[in-house]
Amino acid sequence: MDIRPIDDEYSVSGQITVEDLDQIKAMGFKSIVCHRPDHESPDQTPFSVIEARAKELGLEITHVPVGPMGVTEEAVQGMVDALDEFPRPMLGYCRSGARSTAIYQKTHHIRG
């Protein structure tokens, strides 16, 4: 797991696993946004599995997938909603962290 801070409220990472969630919680993250569509690669942990464990740990979590079409208007709105509703600091993840960074930058311009 390679967590990279974007600012005080938001950091990004490549794919996380269920085993990473305890460390994510211990690092002080309060919410997680998954930007990776399920079934993108065969070795990927499904969102539902990560979601179940995150909720057990008391972390807020949502799925705002960004697929081959790139950052869509629907995805941007989902991220805006997550930023408005979820506590921070927040961790966004996808395969490499690039989509999580891109969508945050787009929503950051909208939210001001």
TrEMBL record:
One of its GO terms (molecular function) is hydrolase activity. Gene3D superfamilies: Protein tyrosine phosphatase superfamily. Residues 2-104 form the Beta-lactamase hydrolase-like protein phosphatase-like domain. This is TIGR01244 family phosphatase. It comes from Rhizobium lusitanum.
